[in-house]
Write a structure and sequence with these properties.
By secondary structure, this protein is α/β, with parallel strands linked by helices. The chain is about 40% helix and about 15% strand. Helix 5 packs parallel to helix 7. The N terminus is likely disordered. Bound molecules: zinc ion.
């Protein structure tokens, strides 16, 4: 009798289990993984491995309170930090040719692009351009989104830099470029390399008008980006600890068969060797930029400010 009961019980529960595992479980998993516990709620500091709650990290501009490591941030966040309360207006970038080589590696390039666009909502490619004022100084900022295919520079990114430069000239504003990039976008072949001279010409356009061209090097600035517009700023700032270089340190070590010095390709090392003018902690970026822009745009402040009016003497 016992056996029959068990069998019937098994018979009754089997479909229920199927329903649970096929229908309910995936639903629960979807809810749990996508909404209730997003994987960005806690972040581990790459510098000291301490865990931080996302709100705490955000309040400190994504700088580790424990070791001072500057975590990578997105383009939108970068714009908020640079423009502060003054706010900014993002501009729509010109449409460019998409996937000109119909490139495919493990996956289609067009697919990777679509995925980046959907996940990040930064626009159609890796560079975001906005204009606004930093303490009253008009500025155009072009910020790279590293999460978008490693911030690599293809036709669209090049076009964004050129557009930003044109806008700066039009508005008689300073141009601030914030690279965060692995370099050229291999999926566009030689067309991506052509963005190097293009972006240099864009920078020249701003310089020829006597407008400030400032570069803020962030982690990482490498490859074709470091070999073009990123190294020709009138003033070059860098965030602490940012890796800035052309080829990776390991590749160089393997090529020259020599041990590289400590801190090689870091912002502080570049500062010591005259490649960077100032290493600026993220919290001080806006005030530093404001001071620099003030000096560049008005190098001869009125003596009346400190000496008082001539009638008084
Ligand atoms: Zn840390």
């Amino acid at each position: 009798m016992g056996e029959t009961l068990d069998e019937s019980a098994a018979g009754r529960y089997k479909p229920a289990m199927n329903w649970l595992s096929n229908f309910v479980l995936p639903k629960i998993r979807a809810v749990v993984t996508k909404k209730a516990v997003p994987d960005n709620l806690w972040t581990k500091c790459p510098g000291c491995e301490q865990m931080f709650f996302h709100r705490e990290l955000e309040a400190n501009l994504h700088v580790c309170r424990n070791c001072g490591h500057h975590l990578r941030i997105g383009a939108e966040q970068r714009l908020k930090i640079l423009f502060g309360d003054g706010g900014f207006t993002r501009i729509e970038l010109p449409k460019t040719i998409v996937d000109p080589l119909k490139f495919r590696d493990r996956r289609r390039y067009a697919e990777r692009l679509r995925e980046g666009q959907a996940a990040l909502g930064v626009g159609s490619d890796a560079v975001v351009v906005a204009h606004g004022q930093i303490d009253g100084s008009p500025c155009v900022v072009a910020a790279f989104e590293f999460q978008f295919m490693g911030g690599s520079m293809g036709i669209a990114a090049g076009e964004a830099v050129v557009t930003a430069a044109k806008l700066a000239v039009l508005q008689e504003a300073a141009l601030i470029l914030v690279p965060a990039s692995g370099g050229a976008r291999m999926q566009e072949g030689a067309l991506s390399l052509m963005q190097m001279p293009r972006t240099i010409l864009a920078a020249d356009m701003v310089k020829e008008k006597g407008l400030p061209y400032i570069v803020l090097l962030t982690d990482p600035t490498t490859g074709g980006v470091s070999a073009s517009f990123a190294m020709v700023g009138d003033i070059t700032l860098a965030e602490p600890g940012a890796v800035v270089g052309f080829a990776g340190a390991r590749v160089i070590e393997e090529t020259i068969h020599e041990k590289l010095p400590d801190g090689f390709q870091r912002a502080e090392y570049l500062f010591d060797h005259g490649m960077v003018d100032l290493v600026v902690p993220r919290a001080e970026l806006r005030t530093t930029l404001s001071r620099i822009l003030g000096l560049l745009r008005d190098p001869h402040p009125s003596p009346a400010v400190s000496l008082g009016s001539p009638e008084a003497s």
